[in-house]
Write a structure and sequence with these properties.
- The complex is a heterodimer of chains A (477) and B (568).
- Chain A is built from 18 helices and 15 strands.
- With 477 residues, chain A is α/β, with parallel strands linked by helices.
- In chain A, the strands form 5 sheets. Chain A has a 5-stranded mixed beta sheet, with no helix packed on it.
- In chain A, a hairpin with a 5-residue loop joins β1 and β2.
- With 568 residues, chain B is an alpha+beta fold.
- In chain B, the strands form 8 sheets. Chain B has a 7-stranded mixed beta sheet, sandwiched between helices. In chain B, strands 1, 2, 5, 6, 9 and 10 form a 6-stranded mixed beta sheet that branches.
- In chain B, α7 (345-358) packs across α13 (517-529).
- Classes of the chains: A alpha/beta (477), B alpha+beta (568).
- Chain A binds chain B through residues 182, 199, 201, 204, 206-207, 347, 376-385, 387-392, 395-396, 399, 406, 412, 415, 418-419, 421-425, 430, 469-471, 473, 477, and chain B through 71-77, 79, 108, 110-111, 114, 116-117, 119, 122-124, 141, 144-145, 147-149, 151-152, 181-185, 187, 207-208, 226-227, 229-234.
Chain lengths: 477, 568
């Protein structure tokens, strides 16, 4: 029977476990930091010598750790892109702007085990020669911000932070910065702009890659909360042991936020790829199945911006056979291993590892209208396709879900979304477009039927009073 | 410096250092482009796709991009499909059957069948890159951007002040589609917003390219503008209503590609296609910004900056831009007056010439104005030399700023100095009149009563020849009043504070009998000195270039629209 593997959540929700430093240290807290600071230089077979900091950076790369924020990019590789020759300070930012609908994993750590994050950050700072780091926390998490401030003060008092930490000769400081309630601040360059005190307009890349031109135009690392926590465990376990967790190229553990039409919504930590979507939904250790009498309709597998998967879909996945040859095998939705690569091959993504389950009581039109309203509300409005397209989609869907649909709306919506994806400054364009593209493609009949029914009602004069189109547009201010 | 400078020898042409280039292909045409080109501040940076396309003579449409502003990349109008040489696993280019490198077109990573565009304004070129600025995919991207820009834009061009010089109109015709699929309600935003004393904003017309914000922040150094609200409701605003009030606000009207920002002075005054455009120079200070005068039926309607990297770049200040109304003032001097009575040019010039010719050497003084053209000053100097006259001009100074405005409020101080007129000599003229040694005074374009030569002194003169444009106490005291022309009514040159000599041409006719000063000065000089040979402005300028060392080697025809630097 599939089970949770609690690495990050080991102490979270454990009876008697409190977020203060004393409790953390009773449970082995800050030992990883001491271990990291005591790292020995390493001789490589080719005669090169790695400094202790380089050793930790190499270990993070070797651990196979992939970013837990959404893109799933190799954390070690991201660190290796940092411009270390510019002479400018290097900054580290913890992205704690957890805002993707359906995602509620980082806040568990922040609220219940903040020192784990701080320890992971201090190690990451040390390994990357960072003297100043920020935790950019979502504005809607005031308690989390307070807890972090408190935890930082405790760490400072114990000498884990500040000047000459633990007598190692390294100065490291971390500050908490609260956002003001915009989803776009989770986009790393938007976050950096916001941290600089500006409107959170994501930057164009090129030239503003954070690793070279980040915060205050200095090299900057931006990592997710969960990612930084994993750094601590990589140091404790060693890269090789860490890499044994999960599956090849999908190492370690991941916290899955499970929500929607399941019996036991919640957060579950799994070894990446060791549990399938079906198990996450149905196993008593996880979702515990759908509500009685209901059947599965769709799964949004990686946060609301990921492409929806339809019940009954079968995907072609690459599998390495016993002979080492790659073959394509058919994998039904429920058997999809929950990892980065399988979901990508299924045409979607594991994103922020938030699974939203939809049963047959759900209208896909209404669901999509809800999602699109969110993206229209949160589009920063900097670049044309997203600014105009996101609200256009939301308005069209509002109309369709309020009885003023047209049969051609399915194609209409897809065309609008096609003109957004890939043409924007940041990935928000995809976030706004993908739900629409996937919902309409996979549930085309439902969208067309809704439009056709509305047309018919209008023809008979039984449709809603005219005005949806001109009056209540989504998030009119 | 009052003595004419010794002309420096013509610089020996030095071959510029070889420019490192890169091979790219634009619309199928292979060309070499420099690896670096100037960015908005003129610093060499990796050449962008947009710059490379320009090298190939291909213009990529854009809204937010501007040569002299930081790159924003927000409008997405310059998205182009492109390809780069395909790399093998050995990091070497993969070759086609014919030996040419195989090109991998850029596609969406998650949808390999769909082209992925790059913004040409900010994407650096790479060796072997192919830019498809007119491919179906590129055209579709432009169409989509235009469709998006238009869904919430009012479609009321016939009543929009920008019509005729609107990039949204132009690109819609060139790159857009005729129909719209939009069936939803439009977003409504504030109309006729009072951004500042000179600017009105129509937020519904705004396409949020942020040119105005970037200009105001990064060029004018004022954080007055920003965006409020979010997403499709984004709205340009001043931090406080009416707070957009620096001396450069009107540049945002030029920068605005649509009808969102309008000038209170010009809006709804004139359809732009009725305007005659004349190249000229602003006279409000010693910077001498290159301008374009827009006029209709003999009346100036507006000044706009004319791009000149040697002087003002693409900008000009608001005070200079709005300083044109005096040209059309009702009280302009229109009549030739002799002894307080209306006369004719022929009669007046004859009398003036006669009086000057008979004046004892040294009994005359000439007060010229550093607002006159270099050619006029040259002629006046000739006259003064013949008469042995004391010469002087009038200094006019005020506040300078960090961008364009100079402390010197005369447009041609250096033109005056190079021709031998110095402001420091003005007290000598007053002293000469007071002492009775100066009996004849020639004043051009200055009210000397405000500069130490009061009406009591003027009353002591036997002859006071005055030429001016507007009436004042000096013109009132003139025995001979010769109505002159504003810069917009004639041709000539100014030399700015940094030694930039610029030509300007005639936009409108002078009122009444008023004439360009150089024309009648020529007649007087001919009569008094016997020197002739410069009846046209070209001939006059070329003659001046022969005689005044600072202008050595110059020819009217060879001075381009942006002028030349002369040694000071």
């Amino acid at each position: 029977m599939p089970e949770q593997f609690k690495l990050i959540l080991k102490h979270v929700d454990a009876p008697g476990y409190t977020p203060d430093i004393a409790c953390y240290m009773r449970h082995g807290g800050y030992e990883a930091l001491k271990l990291a600071l005591a790292t020995a230089p390493r001789d490589l077979p080719d005669g090169k010598k790695l400094t202790p900091k380089e050793v930790v950076r190499e270990d993070v790369k070797a651990s196979g750790l992939r970013g837990r924020g959404g893109a799933g990019f190799s954390a070690g590789l991201k660190w290796s892109f940092v411009d270390r020759r510019s002479g400018k300070p290097i900054y580290l930012i913890c992205n704690a702007d957890e805002s993707e609908p359906g995602t509620f994993k980082d806040r568990q750590v922040i609220h219940k085990d903040p020192h784990q994050l701080i320890e992971g950050m201090i190690i990451s700072c040390w390994a990357n020669d960072v003297k100043l780091a920020y935790i950019y926390i979502r504005g809607e998490m005031p308690k989390g911000a307070r807890l972090l401030e408190q935890a930082l003060a405790e760490a400072r008092e114990k000498g884990f932070l500040g000047k000459n930490i633990l007598g190692s000769g390294n100065d490291i400081e971390i500050h908490v910065h609260r956002g003001a309630g915009a989803y776009i601040c989770g986009e790393e360059t938007g976050l950096i702009e916001s941290l600089e005190g500006k409107r959170a307009y994501p930057r164009i890349k090129p030239p503003y890659f954070p690793a070279v031109l980040g915060l205050y135009m200095c090299p900057t690392i931006v990592n997710n909360v969960e990612t930084l926590c994993h750094v601590k465990h990589i140091v404790t376990m060693g890269a090789a042991n860490y890499a044994k967790l999960g599956t090849p190229n999908n190492t370690g553990t991941r916290i899955v936020s499970l929500s929607g039409d399941v019996q036991r919504p919640g957060y579950y930590e799994i070894e990446v790829g060791k549990v399938t979507i079906g198990e996450l939904i149905n196993d008593p250790n996880f979702g515990g199945g759908l509500r009685s009498g209901r059947s599965l309709k769709a799964v949004i597998p990686g946060g609301s911006s990921s492409k929806v998967l339809k019940a009954g879909e079968v995907f072609k996945l690459n599998r390495k056979g016993a002979d080492g040859q790659m073959t394509k095998v058919d994998v039904p939705l429920l058997d999809l291993p929950y990892d980065f690569d399988s979901l990508q091959q299924a045409g979607t993504m594991s994103g922020s590892s938030a699974i939203i389950v939809l049963d047959d009581s759900r209208s896909m039109v209404d669901t999509l209208a809800n999602l699109s309203e969110f993206y229209a509300h949160e589009s920063c409005g900097q670049c044309t396709p997203c600014r105009e397209g996101a609200l256009w989609l939301a308005k069209g869907l509002h109309r369709l879900s309020h009885g003023e649909g047209r049969k051609e709306d399915a194609a209409y919506l897809s065309h609008i979304a096609q003109n957004i994806q890939g043409r924007t400054i940041c990935a928000f364009g995809e976030a706004a477009a993908w739900p629409v593209l996937s919902f309409v493609k996979k549930f085309k009949d439902e969208f067309e039927a809704k439009g056709a029914a509305d047309e018919e009602a209008r023809a008979k004069g039984t449709g809603p009073a005219h005005g949806t189109r001109t009056a209540a547009s989504p998030n009119k201010h | 410096m009052s003595a004419p400078a010794i002309p420096s020898p013509a610089p020996v042409p030095v071959a510029p250092p070889p420019v490192e280039t890169m091979t790219v292909k634009v619309n199928g045409k292979t060309l070499q482009v420099p690896k670096t080109m100037p960015d908005w501040q003129g610093k060499p940076q990796a050449t962008t796709m947009l710059q490379a396309a320009r090298c190939a003579g291909v213009d990529i449409p854009h809204y937010c991009y501007h040569d002299k502003l930081p790159v924003a990349g927000n409008c997405r109008m310059c998205l182009v499909e492109f390809g780069t040489p395909m790399m093998g696993p050995d990091r070497k280019p993969v070759l086609d059957e014919d030996g040419s490198p195989k090109i991998a077109k850029s596609v969406l990573p998650y949808e390999p069948g769909t082209p992925r565009g790059a913004i040409a304004c900010a994407t650096p070129i790479s060796p072997g890159m192919e830019i498809y600025a007119d491919s179906p995919a590129t055209k579709q991207m432009r169409e989509a951007v235009l469709e998006s820009l238009l869904i919430n834009h009012p479609l009321d061009c016939p009543i929009c002040d920008q019509a005729g010089e609107c990039k949204l109109q132009e690109y819609s015709v060139e790159h857009g589609q005729a129909g719209s699929r939009f069936v939803e309600a439009k977003v409504h935003k504030p109309k006729a917003v009072d951004l500042g004393p000179r600017i009105v904003l129509d937020d519904e017309r705004c396409i949020l390219c942020t040119r105005c914000i970037r200009f105001t922040k990064d060029i004018a150094g004022d954080d007055a503008l920003g965006i409020v609200n979010r997403g499709s409701y984004n709205t340009i605003a001043a931090w406080k209503e009416g707070a957009f009030d620096n001396n450069y606000t009107l540049n945002t009207v030029d920068l605005c590609p649509v009808g969102a920002l309008t000038s209170k002075d010009f809006r709804f005054k004139m359809r732009v296609w009725f305007l005659k455009e004349t190249k000229s120079v602003c006279t409000s200070c010693g910077t001498g910004c290159s301008i374009t005068i827009g006029s209709r039926e003999g009346v100036i309607q507006r000044y706009e900056p004319r791009e000149n990297d040697g002087v003002n770049g693409p900008w000009m200040c608001d005070s200079g831009r709005l300083n044109y109304k005096w040209v059309a003032r009702e009280d302009r001097l229109k009549d030739v007056m002799v002894g307080g009575r209306r006369s004719t040019w022929a009669a007046a010039l004859k009398e003036v010439s006669a009086k000057l010719a008979s004046a004892p050497k040294g009994s005359t003084a000439v007060v010229a104005s550093a607002r006159q053209t270099t050619e006029e000053l040259f002629l006046l100097k000739k006259l003064a030399d013949k008469l042995g006259a004391q010469t002087a001009s009038v200094a006019r100074t005020g506040e300078a700023d960090k961008l364009l405005v100079a402390a010197d409020k005369n447009p041609n101080t250096n033109g005056a100095i190079l021709n031998g007129f110095a402001a420091a000599d003005l007290p000598k003229v007053g002293a000469g009149i007071a002492a009775g040694s100066i009996k004849t005074l020639i004043v051009f374009g200055e009210d000397v009563t405000k500069h130490g030569i009061g009406s009591d002194l003027l009353a002591k003169l036997e002859t006071l020849v005055v030429s001016d444009i507007l009436p004042n106490a000096t013109t009132a005291a003139a025995t001979h009043l010769l109505p002159g022309a504003a810069h917009a009514e004639k041709r000539g040159t100014f030399v700015n504070v940094k030694g930039r000599l610029q030509k300007f041409t005639k936009a409108v006719e002078a009122p009444g009998d008023a004439r360009a000063e150089w024309e009648f000065l020529h007649d007087i000089v001919l009569d008094v000195t016997g020197q002739d040979g410069f009846v046209s402005i070209e001939g006059l300028f070329n003659q001046m270039a022969k005689e005044v060392p600072a202008f050595a080697g110059l020819e009217w025809a060879k001075v381009g629209d942006t002028g030349v630097n002369v040694p000071l």
